[in-house]
Structure formats: structure tokens, C-alpha cells
Amino acid sequence: MLDRIGHGYQAFLIWLVDRCRRAAVWVVIGVFVATGLSAVYVAKNLTLDTDPVHLLDPNLHFRQLQRDFYATFPQLDDLILVVVDQGSAEDRRDAVHELATLLERQPSLFASVYQPQQDEFFDQYGLLYFDVDELWRLDERLAEWSPFLGTLAQDPSLRGFFSILTLALNEDPTPEQQKVLADAFALLSQAIEAQRLGKPPASSWKQTMLEDVTGKSDPSRGFLLAKSRLDYSSLEAAEGPLEFLRRHSADLEERSGVRIRLTGPIPIEAEERETVVRGVGLAAGLSLVLVSFVLIAGFRSLRLVGAMLCTLLVGLLWTAVFVVVAVGSLNFISASVPVLFIGLGVDFGIQFGLRYREEFSRFGDHEEALRRAVAGVGGALTLAAVAAALSFFSFLPTSYRGLAEMGLIAGVGMFIALFANLTLFPALLTVFPLSRSRVASPMKTTEAGSPEAPVTSAIVRYRRMILGVLVPVVVAAVVVVPRLHFDFNALHLRDPSTESVSTFQELLADPDTSPYVIQVLVDDLSAAEALAESLRSVPEVDRILTLSSFVPGDQEEKLAMIDEMALVLEPVLIPQAIVEMPGEEEEVQAMKEFRAALGAHGSRHLQGALDKNLKTLMQSIDNLFDESQGSTRFVHDLRVRLIGDFPKWIERLRGLLSPDEITLRTLPESLTSHYSAQDGRTRVEVFPAENVEENQALRRFVSSVQQKAPGAIGSPVSMLEAGQTIVDACIQATLLAILMSALLLLVVLRRPGETFFVLLPLVLTLLLTVATCLALGVPLNLANVIALPLVLGLGIAFGIYLILRRREADSHSIVEVLRSSTSQAVLLSALTTMASFGALGFSSHPGMASLGNLLVVVLILALLCALVILPALLAEWEQKGWWGASEPIQR
């Protein structure tokens, strides 16, 4: 029954090719017209789905938790994180406030805007968040600096700055005042030297005071969280909000001297999309060029290669039409299909083309060559297409929807490529016929028309040595495979040179700003406090924030301390009279008087830090005067560096000296809405104790929190769960593909031995690939892991071609197969596929590059298994007489 079906199908293929030959001109015209219309249709309708959420099954548990969390706190979804640094602290604050005001006036682009711990509430109540000891030290520090602060409050110029320092020197300072002066002199020396060398301003006076009080400097960054409105019907869903932010940020940077960068999910995805599109375009173009080069070098016939490439491009456009009709859009994963189609689809043309050339060189008749070629390889091509399609379709039942869509497109693409090669390819060969004088290979050939490669004899002669080496390698590979490292961090697959990723990595390095925070939804505030208490003992957790965290403790004692500070400082900080700002010459004169006081004081032979810093400062001032050559041009820049934002900070300090008691009810709505939902549920933020960019640290952090809170969600949880989903999908797809391919081969070939030998190179390739990755220290990641199931299609095709050609050979000998055009076609197919997939390695996108590099490794191993290991094993099998071969094997 199966024999009759097989013969009937072969007859159908011969009839189909013959009909296309007879109507070649009309076939070519019809195909090109249809393809042109298809190209227009695809250009108008093909889109790229930019929403990464659509890549995974929405029914996954962590996806359900994620949806529930963002439904409860929608203001935390679709965020753009604006990071403001450089410039002075007050310049950063002003920049954040100005940007926030601008964004609030654009409700069509931004749903909400939030300034974390930088709004009017913290401008009034900030001192209550100091510890009691920190507040005592701040009180002492401000008392020490009060004369300096009072003078600058009255006269915020270089005149006031240097006059108070001159006065302090002339009054024979006490040991406590000497310490203050030593610190001031050190800062002053740094500022002058930075100006002379053209460097950014050094630490501000406020930073120095806070470092001494709290052990950490004033925050070097300002933050703004903007919830953007996205348009997923557009290729660039966040184009509007991002373009608005970038345009106004550039203007603000120029005016204020700060640096503004965008990061967070939305900017990272937008720049990722640009990198992917650019990478796919480069890879597809380079892939086509490299494939063309390999084909021309292998066939030495421009007409044959031209027909093959035309068929390939037509098949690619037809596949794009299927994407629009059946799927609707491409995702980040299926966007690599053009490169995959070029690499896998060209295999059919190579097999058909080389067999046609072999038959044409033997008989010299185009019609006969086409019939014999399709009779010889048509069944193998069909079986390879079906097996490859089954391998790709094995992704359909997985939870990784992005890969499932790619599997559907690639699987259907295999049938499209097969159909194009059985119709358009013979028609093109008819319209543009080959010259028999140019068909023969330039290499020495046997009677069968294939190269007489010395490698063939070597493989057969040294088959036992090859197998002897293979056995321990396979055993070692089986042992080490469980040790393979998998990198779950999607950030490692993104381009580190983009602004969003580099900024994100910078924030990760600082535990106070790490974006990798776990979120937990609980029923109410009491449950949140109970969970926070249980998590405080977890070593992987640094700190926990709930709404109650913003109600400081010891408020009665702190308020009393702040009242005492206000009694002392308010008279100092409030200007008593309006002082006319001096001119630059007057400021220079004040600086010269200060230099003279330094010289007079330096002759007293002071000890310790004051003496050292005083001498350094004198030298710095002298250098500045010498370089200025009597000009006052340096005054403005020096005033900015020394005085800077100090008047604004004094005004803020006055506002901080009059707080009231904080309760849950007095917390501002902008803060409470980010921690307490309308339905009463409360958010708990859990921060990691270590940098969780490293995989093991990420696992420890997530697992330790999930033990206490199974409903935990957030970037670390999503990253780990999504990565595990992808790994499970690839393992499931690989096993399913092997199983379905085995069943298909058993049904079609009806010989368990042949099925075994077809599948053997495939299994060996997968095993050796994993072992090679481990040996080279190359981890599998969320991108290159796709290479393992992807190579199933091509790996199984190699085995099919060789085994079916062996069945067809008169002697049923592997030697004859190796001397035929089939082995040459396998070699050329592997080289073209390497060229196609290898083009991905030139992509600027790290994920695509890692996929391309691993695919090259996989293909090298697949070629080794198909053309070296499989023939060696078959030769030994035939020599033992276990699988009859009439031609004796030469030792």
C-alpha cells in the first residue's frame, strides 16, 4: 500500500515538474506578477507586535499575578524612568520639577507623573526621616557652619564667601573651627583645581555636611516616573511620549547643565526594537550576500544560482503573505524568520540543483535531467520538508507564544519553499537553460558526476578510529550536560551601548537604586506589616517598604530637636537686609585678601590637616591668579562652583525647620496611592541585598521571598519565571520534534535501522552542542537556546538525504553515497546555512548575535555528524554484514 502511494506521489512530482517545464514562460510570468502584488500587500499590512507581554501564554501563573498587580496599581505599568544627574543638587531638583510640570500638561501622552521622595511633602518633612543620632550630628554640624551659612545667606557671592573665611582666620580659630576650616579649604582647593583643569564641579558644601552626618552623600541622581500612553497599533508604540521627553530633555540639559537619561521598560523596549529591526535588516541582507557567494563558489553557474536565489526570494515573500493572513504580525522572535528561511529554504534548491546538474551532465538532455532529478530527490525533499515542518510545529503546544508563532511560520515556510522549488525552479531552468559545457564541476569527478574526494577513502579507512574517539566523547558529553549554565537575565541580551540599558545597569550597581525589586500584594496594611517583619530576617533581603515605612519613628523627640535647631538657625538663615551684589573686581579683591590671610596664618606653623590643606589652597589660588593674568573671566565659573545652588538650599533648609507630626492620614495622596489601592490592598516592596544581575543571586533572592510570599511578582520574578518557561518550551519542543520525526520516518521508511541512522546525527549534534557550549564557557540564554530545536529541521534533513540516496544506490553502499552529488549537496547546504545564520553574528543586538554564533557551532557539528560520523558508522555496519552492502569496504 505504502509502495503504491510512494510510486504515485513520485509520478505526481514528475508530472508537476514536467507541466511547469512545458508552461515555463507562463509560470515565471504568473509567479513574478503574483509575487509583486504580494510584496505590495506585505509592505502595507505586515506589522511588528512590539508588546513583549504577548510572547508568553497569558494563563501562566506569574502572568496572572502580574496582570492582577498592574490592574491594582495601573500607575506602575508602562513606566518611563527619567534619571537626572550631573550639575548641582538643586539644579537636578529643579530639572525634575520642570519636567514633571511639562509632562502633567500632556495628558494625551502621559497618564500620570510621580516624583519619588522629591515633592513638596519631603521638602517640609525630610528631617523627620533622619535617625535620632543623625539628627543630633546634623544639629552639631549646622551649628559649626552657622557663621558661614549666615554670611552666605546675606551675601551669596564670592565676596561673602571669602570674607567669612578671612574673618575666621583672623580670629584665631578654636580646634572645632579649625576642623571646619580644614574641610572648607579642602573643598575650595578641589573646586579651584577642577576649574583650572576644565573638570566638572566637585562636591558641594551640602554634600560634605551630609556625608559627615549620615555617612552617605546627597543623592547624585534625581528621578521621575512617567506612566506613558502607548499605541500598539503603531510600529513605535511609545514614539510620542519618548519623542516629547527627549526633545524637552535636550533643551533642559542645555539650559541647566544636568544630564537627563531615559530608562525603564518602555525606553529599553523601544531601543531594543530599533536594534532588532536594524539587526534583522543587516543580517538578512548579509545572509543573502553570503549565501549567494557560497552558491556561486559551489555551483560555478550564475544561471543555476540565479534561479535558486529567485526561487528563494519568491518563497520568502509568499511566507510573508502567510504571516499577514494567518498570524497578522511578527514578534521579536519570529522577526528572525527571514534569516531562517534563507538558511533552510535554500537547502531544497541545492539538493534539486546538484541532482539536476548531475543528471544533465550525464544525459545532456534538459527534460530528462529534470525528470530524473525530481524522481531521485523529490521524495527526499518532501520527507525532509515534512520532518522539518513537524520540528517547527512542535513549538505550537508550548507556553512560549512568541516561539510558537515562529514555529508556525517556519513550518509553513518549509512547504512554501518545497512548492516553489518544484514549480518555479524548474520553470526558471527551462527559460534560462544551462550550457552543457559549463555544467560539469571544475573538480575532478567520478562517473556519477560527483567529486572524488580523498576524504571519502579516509573516512572509510579510519572508521574505527573515528568511532573509537566518538564513544568517550559522547560519554563525557552525557556526563557534563547537566552542568550547563543557563543565563536567565534578559538584560544580557540587550545592546549595552544604548542609553536605556547602560543607565539601567548603572542603577543596578547601586543597591539604593536597583530597579530589580519584588512586589507583593497583600490584603491590608496589617498584613503588609506582618510580611515585612517576616522578611527582615531573610539574608537575601536588604530592606522592605510599605506605606507604614513613611511614618517615621521617635517623632516627638525629633520634633523637639528640630524646634531647637530652628531657634538657632532661623535668625541666621533669614537675610536681615538686602545686600547689593558686588562686581567681579570686588569679588577678586575679596579673594586676594583671603590669600593674604592664608599667607599670614601659614607662618604660624599649624599642625595637622589644617596646615596641609591651607598650603595646598594657597598654591591653587596662586596658580589660578597666574593663569588668569589679571583677567576676571574666571570669576563667574568659580562663583558657580563655590556658591552654586547654595541660596536655594538655604531656602529649602528653612522649609525643613517647621514640620508637623506625620501620620498615615497626613501622608500625601501622591504617596499613598502608590502603596495602597482603592480596594484596600497594599503593596510591599522588597529590595535585594546583593546585585541580582548575576543569575544565582537572582535565584536566591526570588526563592527566599517566594517562600514567605508565594504571590510575589516584579521584575526578578518575571525574569526567572519567563526564562524557565522558555527553557521548558525548548525542551518540550525538542523532545516532541524527535518523537514525531521518529514516527514519521518509521511510517515512511518502514525500516527501524534506517530510522535510527537518520536520527542518530541529530541526537549526536544536540548532545555535542551542549557539551561544546560547556567546554567553551558559552552559556545558553533566552535567545540562543532556540538554536537547539531550530537545528532539528536541517539536522534531520541531512540524514534523510544520505539514507535515501544509499537506498537508491545500486550497491546500497555508503561509499557510493559519499561519491554522489548528495554528499556534495549536504556539504554545500551546510555551508550556505552557516553563511545565512552566521550573518546573525554580525548583528549589534547581543541576543541575535549569540543565536547566530551558536547556530554556526551547531551546523559545524551537524556537518561533522552527517558526513563523518554517520558514514564511518555505516561503513563499519556494512563491513560486519549487519546491513548488507554488495561492494566490499576497503580497510
Can you give a write-up of this model?
The protein is mainly alpha-helical. It contains 32 helices and 12 strands. The strands form 4 sheets. It has a 4-stranded antiparallel β-sheet with strand order 3-4-2-5. The chain has a 4-stranded antiparallel β-sheet with strand order 9-10-8-11, with helices on both faces. The longest helix is centred in the first third of the chain and has 35 residues, at 265-299. The chain is elongated, with a radius of gyration of 37 Å. The two termini are 41 Å apart. Mean pLDDT is 82; it is low at 210-217, 440-452 and 884-891.
pLDDT averaged residue by residue: 82
Coarse shape: elongated
Helix-strand makeup class: mainly alpha
Rg value: 37 Å
Strand content: 5-15%
The major β-sheet equals: 4 strands, antiparallel
Concise account of the structure shown:
The protein is mainly α and about 900 residues long.
SSE layout:
Layout: H1 2-22, H2 24-45, E1 47-48, H3 61-72, E2 79-85, H4 89-104, E3 110-114, H5 120-125, H6 132-154, H7 158-170, H8 175-197, H9 205-214, E4 221-228, H10 239-256, E5 259-263, H11 265-299, H12 302-327, E6 329-330, H13 337-363, H14 366-393, H15 401-431, H16 454-461, H17 463-480, E7 486-487, H18 499-508, E8 518-522, H19 525-535, E9 541-545, H20 555-573, H21 584-602, H22 608-628, H23 634-642, H24 646-656, H25 669-672, E10 682-688, H26 695-708, E11 713-714, H27 715-749, H28 752-776, E12 780-781, H29 787-808, H30 814-818, H31 821-838, H32 846-879
Helix pairs in contact: 1-14, 1-15, 2-12, 2-15, 4-10, 6-7, 6-9, 6-20, 7-21, 8-22, 8-23, 11-12, 11-13, 11-31, 12-13, 12-15, 13-14, 13-15, 13-31, 14-15, 14-27, 14-29, 17-28, 17-32, 21-22, 27-28, 27-29, 28-29, 28-32, 29-32, 31-32
